[in-house]
Design a protein that fits this description.
The chain is α/β, with parallel strands linked by helices and 381 residues long. The chain has 2 domains: 3-242, Aspartate Aminotransferase, domain 2 (3-Layer(aba) Sandwich), CATH 3.40.640; 246-379, Alpha-Beta Complex (Aspartate Aminotransferase, domain 1), CATH 3.90.1150.10. It is built from 13 helices and 12 strands.
Amino acid sequence: MKFETKVIHAGVKPDPQTGAVMTPIYQVSTFAQSSPGVHQGYEYARTQNPTREVLENNLAALENGFGAVCFGSGLAAMDAILKTLDAGDEVLSINDVYGGSYRLLKAIFGKFGIRSNFVDMSESSQIKKHITSKTRLIWVETPTNPMLKVVDIEAICKVARDAGVKTCVDNTFATPYLQTPIDLGADMVLHSATKYLGGHSDVVHGAVICKSSEDHEALKFMQNASGAVPGPLDCFLVLRGIKTLHLRVQRACENAKKVAEFLSNHPKVGTVYYPGLKNHPNHTIAKKQMKDFGGMVSFDLGNDDAESCREIMEKTKVFTLAESLGGVESLIGHPASMTHGSIPKEERLKSGLTDSLIRLSVGVENGDDLVEDLKQALDHL
């Protein structure tokens, strides 16, 4: 089954009772039992919910995994993965990582004796020297947030596998439409489904897709035991969004290319970060492992001046100044003070994240309108 068919049909069947084509929202907390322990596969909605189950089956099919586990947010999904570790274990994370992921690793799990080491993964051969006898998990983002670095998933997973270490790839930016990390060797794939999977800025949701039944079972246990589950309406909204994932992401890719090319030729813009540009240092890797280059674009004014960023972001009319990404509408944001504000500046600068960096989530509007909006905003500088 091709991807475009999977998003609509994989794991989804008409409701057996009514024939409803869309999966119903099972807004229920508990299920009747004919005798203690005798039921129709559902007992309590934290443990199982029919709407959530359909979404999990759909996600597993999209990422070519054994099974998926859904959570109340992307960070709740990451939290569940980290809870499978023990005190004394180590996580090797890519250094250009989402601010919330950094905060969870350092401020939360660091207190429980789980150490995190943040390294440049652009050269997979260099990762081996950072793996110790205590390393249990390699955490990868690609493309990264917000510097749009692309790392070789297959090469990193081979290094991890040879060392007996699990790998999880945050696939939020790329989505399974553009790349499937499990096919490249990853043990787990994480999504903030709030973003492209939901696609309409109306739901907060997270998911992990596992390659093995063992990891899937461990996370299902964590899902039930810790209880950070999404509600059935949230699952319904993500299922609804996924049906147009390929259409939305492809249009976002087309618009992002147009925006990136415009910014690259603008005299007031310093560096443009977009894997689809041939001068991007990871363009070749991106071309090898991705179907297209995504809808995220970052650019730096080159002066480490947050005030100049503020002037631009206050002047856009089509791009909305807001957190998040991956919706049908285009968003503009300032990572240093917004999504990555929890990372100390000295740490941000190590990966190139300056105060004059702007991140764009390019939506599905008319591409010419998006370019014109950025042009008029930059003209105000």
